[in-house]
Specification:
17 helices, Translation Initiation Factor IF3, eleven-stranded mixed beta sheet, single chain, five-stranded mixed beta sheet, 27 strands, alpha+beta, about 35% helix, BirA Bifunctional Protein, domain 2
Length: about 525
């Protein structure tokens, strides 16, 4: 076989260094991270370097979340990275839940001996310090000084921070030893107020997931065995990735009075009696960027919803002569100015010594929603070539028709005026496509035989009746590599899956179905 024939048989995307999804999904994901210039592995085991393009996406996510936090009355603060071991150990269930993932500082100084730098044995700390895996204990130790009366409640605080959980098996964005996140920690006078807060913040997460990220989610409660360590109730949002696996995208916890008791945080109520406060915590992390990649991207690279794209429109001037370069460059800058006036994030790629095609591929890999090409003929016609990174495929549509909708030549004024509306269309269509994908890979299942067949095949989300124990959950995990992603809120259950039935494993009566899937 000739080299030319061999090249024709290779998947088109593989030529650009991106493994096709259907060949190796895990490698495809890592290729997207690399080719989109989002992150790198660090010299520190299990840690990552978030590169500027990846961090810019995180900044936009931060802004969307932070605005919603503040709109619901929360304020930001910052607490120490280090937690004294004795403080972490005060809430036993919490400490036990994170024990295997904790990094511990035992010394505070280095020394040089014969030209070699080593730990100074005389600098051993009187008490080891845990690098925060989460901040409940250090925050509640502080809240003890801030809360005395019902007038101090509710206390609604969030912090943006890094945490360390010493994971043994890591994957960029999805699971790393150190990651960025936000963690909200609130104190309330009553259980009802605290539980209302838990639901409110889960709604915030669901809103950002669906209306900003374009990722549809299922909301519900975690089972007892899957709750956050030390929580009485954990609520979550679960998204489906393109390989059919579930990704937990955010959690919100009702902590009861457990942390208040361990830190002795009491308040004087309106009747003049001392009570322990009720606590919540809630958080999302940089794994949301992993969710974006795995929900929307294709074999050509990253696809970003416009609301999170650091660059929403890239403009590429096309020329052959110095005169054409000056003319198309000036037009590109003029178009950019007009689009920026409409609130869009725009970049003009006028780098010299680089072919237009190479620029197209770069911005396509980085997920820029729209590319505008400006050439001499466009100047003559008073038009712009508008290329969408993504179009929602129509049933029965041919590839030529698809390409025609992706690339359009529009009158200049029409293209510029219509760009904000086009961003809205792209945002809407990404969510619509993700919902259609989830619907296609979701089943209502009543027998173990059908359950096994489903997960031996392409898999996805399974609505099943459940009345088993935590030990029964382990049986399902070992047998099928699945877990209960959530006990869904009633309104989250599809009409076809409602009503009572029998547990898929034990046959015991079951009041409602749960969501089962393989997961990250």
């Amino acid at each position: 076989m000739s080299n030319q024939q061999n090249q024709k048989q290779q998947p088109a995307a593989a030529a650009d260094g991106i493994t096709p999804r259907g060949t190796d999904y895990g490698q495809w994901y890592l290729d997207i991270v690399k080719r989109a210039d989002l992150a790198d592995h660090s010299s520190v085991r299990g840690c990552m370097v978030i590169k500027p393009h990846g961090y810019a996406i995180w900044e936009k996510l931060q802004r969307e979340l932070d605005d919603r936090f503040k709109a619901t009355g929360h304020v930001n603060a910052y607490f120490p990275l280090f937690i004294p071991l004795s403080l972490l150990a005060k809430e036993e269930e919490h400490a036990a839940g994170f024990a295997k993932e904790c990094a511990v500082v035992t010394h505070y100084r280095l020394k040089s001996i014969d030209g070699k730098v080593t730990v100074d044995p005389e600098s051993k700390l009187e008490e080891p310090l845990v690098v925060r895996p989460t901040s409940e204990t250090i925050i509640w130790a502080q809240y003890k000084n801030w809360i005395q009366s019902y007038r101090d409640l509710p206390l609604l605080i969030n912090q943006w921070a890094n945490v360390v959980r010493w994971e043994m098996r890591t994957r960029l964005f999805l699971r790393t030893a150190e990651f960025l996140w936000q963690e909200g920690h609130t104190a309330h006078a009553t259980e009802a107020e605290a539980r209302e807060e838990v639901s409110r913040m889960l709604d915030v997460y669901a809103d950002v997931a669906e209306n900003v990220m374009g990722v549809p989610v299922v909301r519900g409660h975690k089972t007892e065995g899957e709750r956050f360590a030390g929580a009485i109730d954990t609520q979550c949002i679960e998204g489906m990735m393109q390989d059919g696996k579930a990704l937990q995208m955010g959690t919100s916890h009702y902590l009861g009075q457990n942390f208040a008791k361990s830190a002795d945080v009491k308040f004087l109520n309106k009747e003049g009696q001392l009570e322990y406060v009720h606590a919540t915590s809630w958080g999302v992390s940089t794994r949301l960027i992993g969710a974006l990649i795995m929900t929307h991207s294709d074999d050509n690279g990253l696809i970003l919803p416009p609301k999170l794209a650091p660059i929403q429109v890239v403009i590429v001037p096309i020329y052959k002569t110095p005169e054409e370069q000056a003319a198309t460059g000036a037009e590109a800058q003029a178009v950019a100015k007009e689009l920026r006036a409409r609130g869009l994030a725009v970049k003009v790629d006028d780098r010299e010594g680089m072919q237009p095609g190479a620029k197209y591929y770069e911005w396509e890999r980085k997920g820029v929603p729209v590319r505008i090409e400006v050439g001499p003929r466009d100047l003559e016609k008073g038009s712009l070539c508008v290329v969408r990174r993504f179009v929602l495929e129509k049933e029965g549509e041919s590839e030529p028709d698809l390409r025609k909708r992706k690339k359009q030549f529009l009158p200049r004024a029409e293209a510029i005026a219509g760009m904000p509306a086009l961003m809205d269309v792209l945002q809407k269509e990404l969510l619509e496509r993700a919902r259609a994908m989830r619907e296609k890979r979701t089943r209502v299942i009543d027998t173990l035989e059908d359950f096994e067949a489903f997960f031996k095949g392409e898999g996805g989300f399974a609505w099943v009746h459940w009345a088993g124990t935590h030990e029964d959950e382990d049986v399902m995990a070992k047998r099928y590599e699945t877990s209960i992603r959530c006990l869904p809120f009633a309104e989250q259950i599809p009409e076809a899956a409602r009503g009572a039935g029998a547990c898929i494993l034990t046959g015991k009566p079951s009041a409602q179905r749960v969501l089962m899937a393989k997961s990250y």
